[in-house]
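Task: sequence design from structure.
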C-alpha cells in the first residue's frame, strides 16, 4: 500500500456534514407551535389585553350623580329637592383621547411583538443547537465505532505479541475519551430537547431536523440596514409611544377647557313641584398645573430613547454583519480547500479516507502516533466546520429576528 495521502485529500469529504444547500421548513413549524403553546406568550397576550382595556377607561364619562334632600319645618311643612346630573369634559377632548388610545394600542401591540420575537428567537437558537448536536453525534458515533474496532483488534494483537502495551493503552484511552464526548453530547442534546419542550408549554413536540435552512448573507449592507431599521419592533414601539406622547401634549393643553355639567332638578319648596334643568361648568385652574410640562418632558424622553435605540441597533447590526461575513468567508475556505462537492455526500463520505488511515495503521505503514495525529485533524476539522455553521446560523437568525 502507498504511503499516506496529503491531508487535503484525506479531508475530501470534510464538508459532508453541512447540508447548507438544503431548505427546511421544520424550524418554522416548531416556531408556529411554540407561538400557540408558549405560556409566556399567553401571559403577554393577557397583559396587553388588560393594558388596552385600562387605556379605554381613561376616556369614559364620569359616573352620574343623584342627590335628594327632604326638609321639614314647623307644623306639617315639608319641602324636598332632587337633582340628577352628569358631568363631562369639553366634547373635543373625547375625540382627542380616542385618537390617543389608538396610538397607545399600537404601542402595546409592538411590545407584544417584541416579547413574541424574543421567545421565538430563543426557540430558533435552540433548534439550531439541536441540529449541530445531532451532526456532532453522527461524527462521534463514527469515531466511537472506529475506536471500538481498533480496541478489539489491538487487544488481540497484544495477545499474539504483535503490539505493545503502550499502543494498546493509547487506543483504550482514545476509546474512553470518545465515549465521554459522546455521552456529553447526548446529555446536551437531551437538555436542548427538554428546553424546546418547555418553550412549547410542556406540550409534546417533534423536531427531527439534521440540516440547517439555507440563509444567504446579503452583499448590500445598506439595503439590509434599511430593512432592519424599518422592521425592528423595538423601534416601532418607541415610535408609537412617541406619537402617543406628542398627542398627550396636545390633550393636556386642551384640558384647560372648562368641564361641563348637565342635569335635572325637581323642587317642592313652594308646595307645588317645580322641574328644571341644571347647567354648570368648572374651570380647571389647579388640577392641570404642570401637566403640559410633564407631557413635553415625556415626549422628549421618548425621542431621545428612539435615537439611542436606533444607534444601538445599527451598532449591533454592523457587528453581526461583520461576524457573519467572517464566518461565511471561513466556511468558504473550508469548502474551497476540501471540495465543495463533498457537501452532497453525507456524514460518512469521509469514512473511506479514515479507512485508509486505519488500513495504513494495521498494515504497519504508519505509527500509532501518526495515525492519531491525522485522525485528530480529520475529526477536529469536521467539528470546527460544524461550529462555524452553527455560529453563522445564529448570527443570521439575530440579524433577521424581526422576520420570525
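Answer:
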Amino acid at each position: 500500500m502507498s504511503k499516506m495521502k496529503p491531508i487535503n485529500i484525506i479531508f475530501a469529504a470534510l464538508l459532508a456534514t453541512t447540508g447548507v444547500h438544503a431548505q427546511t421548513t421544520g424550524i418554522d413549524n416548531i416556531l408556529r407551535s411554540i407561538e400557540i403553546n408558549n405560556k409566556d406568550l399567553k401571559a403577554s397576550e393577557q397583559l396587553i389585553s388588560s393594558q388596552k382595556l385600562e387605556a379605554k377607561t381613561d376616556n369614559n364619562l364620569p359616573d352620574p350623580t343623584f342627590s335628594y334632600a327632604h326638609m321639614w319645618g314647623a307644623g306639617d311643612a315639608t319641602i324636598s329637592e332632587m337633582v340628577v346630573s352628569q358631568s363631562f369634559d369639553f366634547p373635543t377632548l373625547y375625540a382627542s383621547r380616542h385618537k390617543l388610545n389608538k396610538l397607545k394600542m399600537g404601542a402595546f401591540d409592538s411590545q407584544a411583538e417584541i416579547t413574541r420575537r424574543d421567545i421565538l428567537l430563543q426557540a430558533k437558537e435552540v433548534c439550531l443547537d439541536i441540529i449541530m448536536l445531532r451532526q456532532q453525534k453522527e461524527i462521534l458515533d463514527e469515531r466511537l465505532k472506529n475506536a471500538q474496532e481498533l480496541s478489539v483488534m489491538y487487544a488481540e494483537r497484544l495477545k499474539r505479541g504483535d503490539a505493545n502495551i503502550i499502543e494498546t493503552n493509547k487506543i483504550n484511552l482514545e476509546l474512553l475519551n470518545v465515549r465521554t464526548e459522546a455521552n456529553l453530547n447526548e446529555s446536551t442534546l437531551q437538555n436542548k430537547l427538554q428546553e424546546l419542550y418547555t418553550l412549547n408549554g410542556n406540550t409534546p413536540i417533534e423536531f427531527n431536523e439534521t440540516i440547517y435552512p439555507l440563509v444567504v448573507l446579503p452583499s448590500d449592507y445598506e439595503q439590509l440596514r434599511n430593512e432592519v431599521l424599518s422592521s425592528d419592533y423595538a423601534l416601532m414601539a418607541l415610535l408609537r409611544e412617541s406619537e402617543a406622547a406628542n398627542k398627550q401634549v396636545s390633550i393636556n393643553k386642551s384640558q384647560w377647557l372648562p368641564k361641563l355639567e348637565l342635569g335635572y332638578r325637581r323642587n317642592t319648596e313652594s308646595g307645588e313641584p317645580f322641574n328644571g334643568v341644571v347647567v354648570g361648568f368648572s374651570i380647571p385652574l389647579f388640577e392641570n398645573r404642570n401637566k403640559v410640562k410633564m407631557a413635553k418632558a415625556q415626549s422628549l424622553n421618548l425621542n431621545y430613547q428612539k435615537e439611542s435605540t436606533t444607534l444601538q441597533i445599527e451598532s449591533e447590526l454592523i457587528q453581526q454583519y461583520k461576524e457573519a461575513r467572517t464566518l461565511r468567508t471561513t466556511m468558504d475556505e473550508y469548502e474551497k480547500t476540501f471540495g465543495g462537492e463533498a457537501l452532497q455526500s453525507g456524514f460518512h463520505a469521509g469514512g473511506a479516507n479514515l479507512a485508509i488511515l486505519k488500513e495504513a495503521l494495521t498494515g504497519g505503514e504508519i505509527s500509532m502516533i501518526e495515525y492519531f495525529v491525522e485522525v485528530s485533524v480529520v475529526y477536529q476539522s469536521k467539528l470546527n466546520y460544524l461550529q462555524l455553521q452553527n455560529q453563522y446560523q445564529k448570527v443570521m437568525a439575530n440579524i433577521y429576528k424581526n422576520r420570525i
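The chain is about 65% helix and 10% strand.
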